[in-house]
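Slide 14.
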Amino acid sequence: MSKKSSHDDRIGHGAAEAALQRLVDEYGGQLYSLSLRFCGDRTEAEDLVQEVFLQAFRAWSTFEGRSSPKTWLYTIAARACQRMHRKRAGEPERIGSIDELLPFGDPLVAAIPDELDDVVQTQIRTEAREQLEAAITSLPDEFRVPLILKDIVGFTVPEVAQILGVAEGTIRSRVHRARLKLRARIDSVIPRNPAEAPPPEYDRQTCLDLLNAKQNALDRGVPFDVNVICGRCRSVFASLDFTQQVCMDLAQDVMPSGLRKRLASRVAAGRA
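Slide 15: predicted structure.
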């Protein structure tokens, strides 16, 4: 190898290391959160995080800036997740029908979390996080990964579609179904209103249309007018909001310091 080639390699490695450090600092916690929810096991999650960042380090020279560094990094992560795909014990064959996921026939519906006193809100938020962790792990992969990218990591539907190479309409449908599955799980920890729920004010299809509009509002991060819905739908929509809030809490994970050190050692070994 010529002196010039050796010099250029050192410059290239130095730029890649600096870029990797920025990526780890900015997205390490979120990527660890995604990996933990995908794998359901901390050791496997840490292995996945290392694999993703090492691939990013090796491929940094090919990054041309057509997408954001975050989108590029999570595209690598999504492919790594797909390679790790496996049939886990207990993974459901199906996510459930709309009738199974919504309380159309329940005599009692959940209270509105924001209207409960602070002590109860804190209690159900703690219980809801535990339920949410289990529910995310139990989702089939094709629903779990889009849901994590959208509602935990915070990508838009078009960005998730780009990362996974799947049509936007398919991503939107899968995220909506996954949200309803999580909502049904979290709904179980919210206290019931003592009074029997009034009958629906609209026919079933109108309620489903309003639910779809609510989901689209969640996708875009815009408010939804609750004045147009009945009390039963208001309960469902409030628990959807609560589910998304708890999902956002999961994004606050911090990359373990031990994992950061192991990643730095592997980068150094690869450079040598």
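Speaker note: The longest helix spans residues 3-39.
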